[in-house]
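User: Run a structure prediction on this.
Assistant: Running it now.
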Amino acid sequence: MEARIDKWLWAARIYKTRSMAADACKNGRVSVGGQQCKPSRMVKEGEVVNVRKSPVTYSFRVLKAIEMRVGAKMLDGVYENVTAPDQLELLEMNRISGFVDRARGTGRPTKKERRSMDAFIAPALGLDYAPWEDDDDDDDVDS
């Protein structure tokens, strides 16, 4: 059985809309067998589809070539996630530090986000603490 790659990406819920899946194919973010593909390319069962969603490249093995969208609970039989562990680690690091690379125009970080960034960045710099944090308890002087 075969299905169009853009329809399969939409039906497997990898992209929210079919037009988003087609745009991803046109812009070279989807490849099958190491080659970029057009939205009309037919995908077969057993092929591995690579989808680049910044900053991670996901890999999915097609178990069933479908063109009609199915419920989220039925996705186990549609594809198998074979994404490399290093890509998943990169995704986890990006999730933890998601506000370090803020989208343009989202404004300044909130106080909570700033404290989380400081706590994340300090160990990366090899520091036990964030030197820019104020520690009022250490400034107490006995008179």
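The mean pLDDT is 81.
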